[in-house]
Every structure is written in C-alpha cells, then in structure tokens.
C-alpha cells in the first residue's frame, strides 16, 4: 500500500496534500563472457535478473511456486466480516463505558475539595509539562497517538534481523503467503521505511481532528481498524485476479478511508499541494482525482502502488459516511441495552453480597 499523501484545508483545521511516489530499484544486465560465442552464450541457461522491487518494502523471502486457489479468499472474507462486526460492537460498548466513567468522574470532582483545584502546580516538573502538552491536544490528536505509537513499535521490529522472517509472515499481506488473516490487520501498522511511516503518520495526524469530530473517538477506531482489514481483502481479490503476488504493507488503505470520509462530508473544503500552496482545489475534486488515478492504475496494471487497497479504502470511507453510519452505528442500541442489563445484574448481585 504505497500511496502516501497529506493535505491542509483552509478552514477550521487546515490540511496539506501531497503525493509521494515509491522509487524502483533497477538491476544491470551481466556482460557476456568474451571467450564464448554469442550462440553458445544464448544457449546457456542462466537465470534472469531478479524483478525490481519497491524501495519502501524489503526484499521478500523465497515463496512457493504455483498460483494459489481462489478458495483461499473464503477465510479472509469471513475474517473481514467477523472482525468488522466485532470492532463496531466493541466500540459501542467502549462508548457506553466511557460515558459512564465520565459521569462518575464528574460527581467525584464535584465533591472534591476546592482547594485542590486552585493549588498552584509545581514548576519544572516533567510530568506536569507532559500533562499540559497532552491536555492542549485535540481529542482527535489524542486518539491517534496510540495508533502512531503502535506503528513506531512495529517499525522498530523491522530493524531486528532476527525478526525479519516473522515480520514478513505476519506484517505483510499477500494471498499467497502462509498466513492470511492476521496480516490483514497487522500490515496496517507495518512500515519498513522511515519516510514511508513518517508520511503516513503525518497524514493521520493532520486529519485526526476532522475525522474524530465527525465520528467520535470510539467510532473512529472501529472505522480505522475495519478499513485496514477491508482494504487488504480488496487487495487480496485484485492480486488473485491478476496473478501478481507481492507483499504489501502500510496504512494507506485505512488512511484512504479517513481522507475519503472527510472529503465526502466536506467537499467544498479548499486543499493545496504542500510544495505548491498557490494552487488550490476542492476536497471533492481531489477525491475524484485520487479515485480516477487508482482506477487507472488498477486497470493498466501499474505496480508502483497497491491501487486495489487504495480503492477499497476510499470506497469504504465514502460508503460509511453516506450509508454505513445510519446502518451500523445508529443501530447499536440493542447491543448497548443488552450490555447495560448484564452490567446492572452483575452490579446488583455484587451489591447484595456486600450489604449482607
């Protein structure tokens, strides 16, 4: 998943947009030995040069020969459906518990001594400075901090030589690989290049305030994780259909969902390329251009980017903010009600035991 961009919109929260292309690494053809005639040199069976690889992805280990069966897509499909349902169900319960905790905290602070609130803070305390920095962040920035930390941790694992085979198996997605389901999620947090990771995380940080203000913290996490799995499954389908099997990694699919969701809800927002701020365009036109580019790349077989994953993420983002929010998130009441009843029964039993 190689498409990387960042955008700055002139409005309440400006964004910047730029496109970063991966580099290809070429190979020189070996010279023919002078002592051999051309006919003998042509008749000699020599292996060809290795295919060029993308610089943002490490060289893959040897894979098994033969094209995998399309039946291998059944298990990833079931995993994508099950994981998406679990993500939104967990987010609904998380929101319930978060609201309950906020209410309890409010009443506890109301009963606290007012002197503790006006007591001056110590100067030079590192912990106080960190708390001050954290409190000055927006809710969206605080939400994506954990995602960025997870990406940095996985990036550090790529630097360990002993972890390289494990990282290829579980942190790169490929339908011909031994592992199919877990890489659909783990590859979303996987970056081999520092520039690759920095660009992706900058995009996520830039759009975090807008997307969290639209969806809320809990719903955003569910959408982001589901987008990573769904975009990877779309990549699986495209690779299986075209027969071009190569590992993919990165957060582009999930970030495309964030971009598409923001551009769909705010199509008139003004965007500009970071190095060319004098040229402006609307978010709606930018989204159309991105979809057209990835569609052409998928149809023409361009191999610079994982265009199928980009399209899968963008289409999922557009669909969710248009229809998915009404169909999924607003119908979470039965689950939350069942969870509330279960929690009430559990609390009642515990309270009765303590009163005796």
From TrEMBL:
Please name the InterPro entries in this protein's record: Peptidase_S54_rhomboid_dom, Rhomboid-like_sf, Rhomboid_protease_S54
Q: Which domain of life is it from?
A: Eukaryota
Enzyme Commission designation: 3.4.21.105
Reaction catalysed by this enzyme: Cleaves type-1 transmembrane domains using a catalytic dyad composed of serine and histidine that are contributed by different transmembrane domains
What are the annotated GO cellular component locations? mitochondrial inner membrane
Q: Where are the transmembrane segments?
A: 77-96, 143-160, 180-205, 211-237, 273-293
Q: Where is the Peptidase S54 rhomboid domain?
A: 184-324
**Main location per the UniProt record:** mitochondrion
- Which parts of the chain are coiled coil? none
> Annotated region Disordered: where?
27-70
Class in the EC hierarchy, top level: hydrolase
Q: How does it sit in the membrane?
A: Multi-pass membrane protein
Q: Which GO terms describe its biological process?
A: membrane protein proteolysis; mitochondrial fusion; negative regulation of intrinsic apoptotic signaling pathway; negative regulation of release of cytochrome c from mitochondria; regulation of mitophagy; regulation of protein targeting to mitochondrion; regulation of proteolysis; regulation of reactive oxygen species metabolic process
Q: Which keywords has UniProt assigned to this entry? A: Hydrolase, Membrane, Mitochondrion, Mitochondrion inner membrane, Transit peptide, Transmembrane, Transmembrane helix
Query: Pro residues bias: where?
Result: 47-63
What does the UniProt entry say about where the protein is found?
Mitochondrion inner membrane
Q: List the GO molecular function terms.
A: serine-type endopeptidase activity
Which family is this sequence assigned to?
Belongs to the peptidase S54 family.
Tell me what this protein is called.
rhomboid protease
- From what organism does this protein derive? Aquila chrysaetos chrysaetos
């Amino acid at each position: 998943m190689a498409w990387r961009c960042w955008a700055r919109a002139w409005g309440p929260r400006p964004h910047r947009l730029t496109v970063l292309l991966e580099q290809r690494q070429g190979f020189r053809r070996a010279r023919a030995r002078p002592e051999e005639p051309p006919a003998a040199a042509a008749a000699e069976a020599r292996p060809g040069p290795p295919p060029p690889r993308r610089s943002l992805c490490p060289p893959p280990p040897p894979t098994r020969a033969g094209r995998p069966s399309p039946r291998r897509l059944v298990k990833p499909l079931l995993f994508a459906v099950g994981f998406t349902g679990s993500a939104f169900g967990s987010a609904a319960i998380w929101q319930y518990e978060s609201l309950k905790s906020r209410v309890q905290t409010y009443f506890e602070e109301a009963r606290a001594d007012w002197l503790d609130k006006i007591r001056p803070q110590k100067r030079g305390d590192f912990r106080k400075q960190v708390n001050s920095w954290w409190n000055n962040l927006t809710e969206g920035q605080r939400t994506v901090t954990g995602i960025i930390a997870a990406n940095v941790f996985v990036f550090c694992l790529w630097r360990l030589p002993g972890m390289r085979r494990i990282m290829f198996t579980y942190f790169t997605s490929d339908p011909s690989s031994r592992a199919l389901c877990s890489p659909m999620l783990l590859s979303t947090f996987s970056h081999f290049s520092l520039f690759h990771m920095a660009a992706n995380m900058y995009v996520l940080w830039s759009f975090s305030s807008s997307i969290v203000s639209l969806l809320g913290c809990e719903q955003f996490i569910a959408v982001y994780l589901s987008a990573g799995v769904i975009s990877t499954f779309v990549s699986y389908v495209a690779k299986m259909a075209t027969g071009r099997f190569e590992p993919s990694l990165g957060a582009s699919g999930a970030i495309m969902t964030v971009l598409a969701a923001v551009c769909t809800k705010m199509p008139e927002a003004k965007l500009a390329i970071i190095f060319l701020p004098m040229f402006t365009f609307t978010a709606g036109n930018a989204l159309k251009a991105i979809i057209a580019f990835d569609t052409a790349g998928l149809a023409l077989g361009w191999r610079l980017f994982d265009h199928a994953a980009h399209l899968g993420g963008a289409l999922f983002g557009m669909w969710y903010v248009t229809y998915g929010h009404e169909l999924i998130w607003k119908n979470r009441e039965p689950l939350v009600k069942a969870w509330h009843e279960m929690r009430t029964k559990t609390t009642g039993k515990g309270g009765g035991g303590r009163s005796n």
